Amino acid sequence: MAPRALDYESLNENVKKVQYAVRGELYLRASELQKEGKKIIFTNVGNPHALGQKPLTFPRQVVALCQAPFLLDDPNVGLLYPADAIAKAKHYLAMTTGGLGAYSDSRGMPGVRKEVADFIERRDGYPSDPELIFLTDGASKGVMQILNTIIRGESDGVLVPVPQYPLYSAAISLFGGSLVPYYLEETENWGLDVNDLRQSVAQARYKGITVKAMVIINPGNPTGQCLSEANLKEILRFCYQENLALLGDEVYQQNIYQDERPFISSRKVLMGMGPPISKEVQLVSFHTVSKGYWGECGQRGGYFEMTNIPPKTVDEIYKVASVSLSPNVPAQIFMGLMVNPLKPGDISYEQFIRESKGIIESLRRRARMMTDGFNSCKNVICNFTEGAMYSFPQIRLPPKAIEAAKKAGKVPDVFYCLKLLEATGISTVPGSGFGQKEGVFHLRTTILPAEEEMPEIMASFKKFNNEFMEQYDDRSGYSRL
Amino acid sequence: MAPRALDYESLNENVKKVQYAVRGELYLRASELQKEGKKIIFTNVGNPHALGQKPLTFPRQVVALCQAPFLLDDPNVGLLYPADAIAKAKHYLAMTTGGLGAYSDSRGMPGVRKEVADFIERRDGYPSDPELIFLTDGASKGVMQILNTIIRGESDGVLVPVPQYPLYSAAISLFGGSLVPYYLEETENWGLDVNDLRQSVAQARYKGITVKAMVIINPGNPTGQCLSEANLKEILRFCYQENLALLGDEVYQQNIYQDERPFISSRKVLMGMGPPISKEVQLVSFHTVSKGYWGECGQRGGYFEMTNIPPKTVDEIYKVASVSLSPNVPAQIFMGLMVNPLKPGDISYEQFIRESKGIIESLRRRARMMTDGFNSCKNVICNFTEGAMYSFPQIRLPPKAIEAAKKAGKVPDVFYCLKLLEATGISTVPGSGFGQKEGVFHLRTTILPAEEEMPEIMASFKKFNNEFMEQYDDRSGYSRL
After folding, report:
1. Transmembrane stretches, by residue range (chains A, B) (predicted)?
2. Chain B: nearest CA to A108, how far in angstroms?
């Protein structure tokens, strides 16, 4: 019998090409080990609540009330919910067209999109138009929709940093486009050199690829660097010169662990450059409720904001969004709460600040503990995690380890990460899942394990690493930097 | 300057080809009129809560508690929440890996998938495997993922009923495949003739199209018919003979308004046919929390179940699902609650039954009121709404009306629906958005307006229709049936 429609041989080749290491071989092996009873520390994905981070109380109170609007009339409601949560729940319910159970407009509720626009205006100092803001089920869905809108086929290219968060490579594969890599410089603190960008574009064009867009992740994932204003200006000028749309993944904008380079949005820099650049460069920026001190990953809430995108294109994006009817409504309310937070004087303000400060300050300490921990290990070097939620240490694998990996049929960093997992339960993602220069190896880990567990985890890593390095040390040198 | 990446001329042509009338011209015009202050009755989309349907209390209590888990330790919790809701919240929170704020497995939480499998087994009498059940952000997202997995390019075809719910045509366009239509027979109560199916496949093959899959919507959308077991057997035998995967859209399985043909799932019929058919035909079935008496559209919860899909394909589907990390977690809990409802003796059981029965019985009455109402109008004929949430009356437009539409540059049924909207505020979807035989015109309306408002709405429709028919009556005959 001929292969059936859903037999492997018959499937869409673009689906088969997709790679997504964050939930790849390492994650699957870790899940198996967990089933067998081994204690696993899942640092493969930025999922703070899974590692014990508590949700912020106030937004949860508001959304709980929105889920149970009949409580608003209950004389006892004040015993469980503060008055400002009750007021906010009424505020958001009034924006819906039938509570959380009704589809919203496919772009999200107008009221929340207005609150997002106001937030952007306060943040950047330039007005923002709610009609150009779409709410999404998490930022990833937004990224995928925009890439799907851009990519016509394999001769359309998208510039993506290497190392990159593999959402980008996966989505480009799925939509049948071409990934055009540009390298971040590890020795330059994962900085980006515009001359290299130019070379990447030239090479792609030589191969017949039309480079249509460029992705930046700021703060960086997996690399943790924060882009400077000067660097963002160079990037925007480059996009203008090369006629590229810029996709600005800014989901970690609240996750900043140093003071030299606070977060600055691509949009603010673009607007500040003035015409013609500010009027010409097409920019789509992404944000989420999953990161920051919120970490509400499971709610799936995000938005994208479009700049210099013509109305006819916005209509097309709206049309395609409408095919899946609407983003989930509870997460839209989380987004509203995130961009329009409590103010001094509100009943719940003090608690909200205490909770959110506690989280971000602890993340800052953990970023330091982790980087320092890695740098104290043999053959491991690690740039400081300036922002985002990850450390991306380089592991200088001895030639004997690389040979052993080859024998085992594994990519060397996969080999290392699997051994780490089996020995310690620490579930990381091999650097090859993000892309890296040839012959150089990394792993990505989140900085999310509970602060009090961090010393033990780093000690456990160190012990494993040192034993591994000893086992494969042939005193004949290491993989080149 | 050359067109930029996100200028209309540069976009992915498949995106431009997408049509989705449910939120198309009529919806956009209705939204405008609403902004201008006109009272609009949105019957364009099956969105029960938007038209006043109250959510079921118990599931909302459970999910509210899951959103605010800190309340579980509050001594006053019992004043606002019944004990069985508290117990259920604990039950579902224990399934998560960090509450609602943590990403779940990309297939959804194992515990909920087990509850779905148990539900399917109880419903059909055949065991179901949780590993072959994926939870999704609404059924539409699942349908899109499966079509994306199947379609390799424009020479891959999918059999879709006409009239159809335009999710299918939209998704097939977006993924660059070919829609192969098969017609439902209005005079046969929207039944399906397998000989016509055979002809549709033969015609497509003649054009060089590989027909890979067939879609059925049961109960039908927009047509409201319920498929008989005999008909489902014919369809499955046909899929076996023609080597087609069957996509069974069964989201309206709880919405049944007659007793002659209760819902029977494609899977139950397939399993009952025995080998080789039961072992060979590939089936993917879809369900949702958005319909039935739940109507929790805004939560975006659904699942698909795969039968006879090889593990390598399941792995590919899992991999692609993992790129967007996880379906939203609150809606997964709604799904668990839907498939594993309260039992007699539970504290909230009586209330739950009262609420759900109230909704479904009212829908049944409304289905009858609407069909009867349409059939009492001049030049309008309408099959009874046996199931689902829609009426799909045929409007026999006089030639003068068709001419007037042409002059206005409108498809005739769009012309009619726009006039209806302007005159009455009733926002419907023209039949052309679903497909219909040439020269025959319909509209789709939901049966969801509040029961007490139904007489007035139908009177308002009748008045408009009769005036319209009078205006365009040239006493020279009507559009042919």
Report:
1. none
2. 10
Instruction: Give the pLDDT confidence score for residue A2 in this predicted structure.
Output: 86
Distance (Å) of CA A13 to CA A79, A176, B155: 57, 9, 14
Chain A positions touching B1 (Cβ under 8 A) are 243, 280
Answer yes or no: do B156 and B302 share one domain: yes
Spacing of C-alpha A174 from chain mean position = 19
The nearest alpha carbon in chain A to B165 belongs to A323
Q: Are A301 and A137 in contact (CB under 8 A)?
A: yes
Tokens coding B257: 């308004």
Closest to B351 measured CA to CA, from B152, B58, B75, B72: B58
Q: Is 50 exceeded by the pLDDT of residue B481?
A: no
- Comparing CB atoms, the residue among B22, B31, B298 nearest residue A101 is B298
Q: Residue A29: helix, strand or coil by DSSP? A: helix
pLDDT at A467 over 50: yes
User: In the structure encoding, which two tokens stand for residue B179, read together?
Assistant: 């829609």
Domain assignment present for B372:
yes
Chain A partners within 8 Å of B140 (Cβ)? 323-325
B212: nearest CA in chain A? A5
Contact B299 A15 (CB under 8 A): no
Distance CA B376, CA B381 (A): 8
- Annotate B375-411 with b (16+ C-beta within 10 A) or e (fewer): eebebbbbbbbbbbbbbbbbbbbbeebbebbeeeebb
Helices in B218-276 by DSSP H: which ranges?
A: 229-242, 266-273
pLDDT at residue number B223 = 94
Residues A335 and A376 in one domain: no
> What total number of domains does chain B contain?
2
CA-nearest residue of chain A to B96? A50
Residues 111-170 of A with CB under 8 A from B: 137-138, 140-141, 144, 148-152, 167, 170
A-B contacts at Cβ under 8 angstroms = 314
> Does any domain span residue A400?
yes
On whether both A160 and A13 belong to a single domain, the answer is: no
Residue B131 lies in a domain: yes
Residues A256 and A369 in one domain: no
Is B74 contained in some domain? Answer: no
Relative orientation angle of helices B399-407 and B412-424, to the nearest 10 degrees: 90
Length of chain A: 481
Last residue within a domain, chosen from B339, B363, B398: B339
Are B387 and B321 in the same domain?
no
Q: How confident is the model at residue B24 (pLDDT cuts 50, 70, 90)?
A: confident
Which residue among B23, B97, B309 sits closest to A106, beta carbon to beta carbon? B23
B302-339, pLDDT tens digit by residue? 999 999 999 999 999 999 999 999 999 999 999 999 99
What pLDDT digit, counting tens, does each position of B65-108 carry?
Answer: 999 999 999 999 999 999 999 999 999 999 999 999 999 999 99
Both tokens of B445, joined, read 């309306």
| Cβ-Cβ contacts under 8 Å for B77 (sequence gap 6 or more) | A80, B65, B71, B86
Q: Which of these, A412, A351, A384, lies nearest to A260 by C-alpha position? A: A384
Cβ pair A80:B70 closer than 8 A = no
CATH number of B382's domain: 3.90.1150.10
Domain range for B108 is: 99-339
Answer whether A70 touches B (CB < 8 Å).
yes
| Last residue of one domain, picked from the residues B311, B339, B367 | B339
Taking residues A197-213, report their average pLDDT. Answer: 97
Q: Do residues B206 and B277 both lie within one domain?
A: yes
User: What average pLDDT does this structure show over B59-69?
Assistant: 98
Q: How confident is the model at residue A361 (pLDDT cuts 50, 70, 90)?
A: very high
Which residues of chain A does B138 touch, with a Cβ-Cβ cutoff of 8 Å?
324-325
Same domain, A178 and A254: yes
Asked if the Cβ–Cβ distance from A57 to B65 is below 8 Å, we say no
